[in-house]
Amino acid sequence: MKLDRYDLKILEILSRDGRITKSKLAEAINLSVSPCWERVRRLEKAGIIEGYSARINTAALVRRTPVWVQIELKAHNAESFARFEALVHATPEVTECVAVGGGVDYLIKFEADSIDAYQRRMDAWLTGEAGIERYFTYIVTKAVKCPVPGVSPEDLA
């Protein structure tokens, strides 16, 4: 599907404010309401817009300690990756995880109640079936740029 500047602007606006009214969205991209809304429906139907949700500021609910971790697995085969990724999905403190190339296998963001709670979780992973060869822990001292619009880095630090 080819996207034009109107489609891209719609996506930009909706990614920041999924609750914007049809008329405000149309006004923001300089189209009338009907053609604008047809574009939104087309983007939804094509699977480009997957849904609408609320971004929850977890720091407002409970104070968490963010920790980034590099993980290298002992074995590099499909079974080892699948077992580790299942463990990640089953761990509520893991809020982000990406597989990467270049020396380590995964980058993980933990949001633990404390550094001690994080370390207890890592100790359990090391003595369990996670298959971790080594890991490197990075304690977040300050959030510089955050992916959540409307939430300042100070709110998350």
Automatic annotation (TrEMBL):
Keywords: DNA-binding, Transcription, Transcription regulation. The keyword Transcription regulation applies. SMART domains: HTH_ASNC (SM00344). It comes from Halomonas fontilapidosi. GO terms for cellular component: cytosol. This is Lrp/AsnC family transcriptional regulator of ectoine degradation. Residues 3-64 form the HTH asnC-type domain. GO terms for molecular function: sequence-specific DNA binding. PANTHER family: LEUCINE-RESPONSIVE REGULATORY PROTEIN, TRANSCRIPTIONAL REGULATOR AZLB. GO terms for biological process: regulation of DNA-templated transcription; response to amino acid.
